[in-house]
């Protein structure tokens, strides 16, 4: 097997599936593994252009992150990949003690000899933008939704675990131990390739920890991708950012010409959706999901074995009757129910999903919420995901790969809290 040129680690599962989708749509043969793949597994997967590992670093403390990412970095280095991508949420929400991007950069840089370390600061197709190092994000999927500086964003400024109180990504990362981040602003990205390369060389003379690239549109991504490809040809390069890193890599080689025309048919049988996200967008999607039997989960009781078993039985019974079921954590009762730091609620959601799929025959599943998705999928006895189609910007429908025939081939949608239109869950059931 020839070495894949691109390797990525997703700090949560939902974001990892978006990167899987971007690379697959660019025509790159890509698999997203649910753990570090061994030689036997890779040999049996055939030729791959890109590989990913879906992780949960976004919800980890620094020491746990270092342990996980050292193993990931060593594996990627052993494969001889050109680009190592640490995939973060496009809103960069993180903190020194939870999901620290700084810890990730400092850990993975040891496995990438290139003196250039790239931070891509926006993803325009999700309406995330970086201008003079300041991060901005839209408040909704609607094109008319206003764009806010991230520290004034109505959702991200009040995130329950990692609220964003700083819009300048250089200052934000400095709090996480990345002391020297040099900005390459949008004006430099308008330069011709040779001049931009010289500009990057000048910026590297001070030996910064990383270069932060502004992003406003696809032209900026093409320019950044050109820089990454030029430098990665010399030595393995580390890039930090959202799926825009994959877009930049593809754009720069004119790979991103493959339009996604895959239609998604109606589900063959009942659909199960588990929503652990507390975002207003997910709340609106739950409210609009009239085709589902809705099951409210009490977060204060989810960690109790008897309550969990009763919910699994009730959900399984509805699915056996052929009903679509949407189980969701009651956002009005979450406060004080479970500590975000120990992920007790997310782990309980994982146990719930595993229990439901053991009890009921379901071939299409949706999970909403970054932490929920990470722990839920890790609770299953599966080993990889491949791309199936796109349901909405940032939301992919994937195929689950497992040695267990009961799980193998399940169509799985993982979505972040802010992703998707209001009718997303309805579309998951009825198709596109």
Automatic annotation (TrEMBL):
Keyword set includes Thylakoid = no
InterPro entries referenced in this protein's UniProt entry, alphabetically: 4-carb_acid_sugar_kinase_N, 4-carb_acid_sugar_kinase_N_sf, NBD_C, NBD_C_sf
Question: What molecular function does GO assign, one term?
Answer: kinase activity
- UniProt keyword terms in alphabetical order: ATP-binding, Carbohydrate metabolism, Kinase, Nucleotide-binding, Transferase
- The domain of life for this entry's organism is Bacteria
**Domain Four-carbon acid sugar kinase N-terminal residues, every copy:** 7-248
Q: Which residues form the Four-carbon acid sugar kinase nucleotide binding domain?
A: 273-425
Q: Which family does it belong to?
A: Belongs to the four-carbon acid sugar kinase family.
Its recorded name reads Four-carbon acid sugar kinase family protein
